[in-house]
Amino acid sequence: MPLPTVAAVVLSQGTRPVELAKALETLLAQTGVDLDVLVVGNAWEPTGLPDGVRTHHEPDNLGIPEGRNVGARLSHGDYILFYDDDAWLPEPDTLARMVAVMESDPHLAIVQPRPTDPDGKPGPRRWVPRLDARSAERGGDTVVFWEGVHLERRTAFEQVGGWPGHFFYGHEGIDLAMRLLDAGWRITYAPGIVVHHPALPASRHAVFYRMNARNRVWVARRNLPHPLDWKYVAIWVLITVARVHDREALGIWFEGLREGWTTDPGPRHPISWRTVARMTALGRPPII
Hints:
- InterPro entries: Glyco_trans_2-like, Nucleotide-diphossugar_trans.
- The chain has helices spanning 17-28, 64-74, 94-103, 154-159, 172-182, 208-223, 228-243, 247-262, 273-281; strands at 5-12, 34-42, 53-58, 79-84, 108-116, 140-141, 149-153, 186-196.
- It is α/β, with parallel strands linked by helices.
- The longest helix is centred in the C-terminal third of the chain and has 16 residues, at 208-223.
- The mean pLDDT is 96.
């Protein structure tokens, strides 16, 4: 019987050579799958990579979602592993186990494993695809997912148009998840499958606060029916004001919010009220 085919897309700017080397070493050690490993150099010419790794150079930084779109188009496999360049797989059957979960149900579009920090540091809230971040060991269907390491069914990914490339950074996974759910696909969290990733704050990125706000508005304007679109944004304004105490950072966030309302978010295809009800039943109504 032929092995399942997996395209592994690794996006890198070449700034973490040690981490990238470990990411690729543990990826190439995977068993039970037929791998096509592609490193997309985002404003970086990939060099010095091991045998078995294909490369593609983009002269400009396309951002995370569009860089991943490029990798998906240039790679081959029924499933696509999107894989951060500072992540690594602790066991040689990690990927095969993710594929086994995916193949257990033809309606699954995404399988997210459980990320853990290799040094034992507590993980950020965004690693757990539930409102209650304490439930890291509870698996099952979700309405969001962590983008850092996850497996996607190519047919589902292509059906809904892939990542929103113009987002550049932030909330592209929420946008993709809403479109997948509205198309009838499932997303599952498999905490029994562990991957490693350093626990780092998303706010370390210079563009974090502006794009966090802008893209939050774009998600609403693109995907949510009225009046949920403005309610979603209003609730996140309240959450952000409560969480962010740095006045300068908050000012940048509100500038991003204004940008989100005054710029083109891309095509609008509101999810159905049936999808709204499904998301609510799964514990995360699309107003938060």
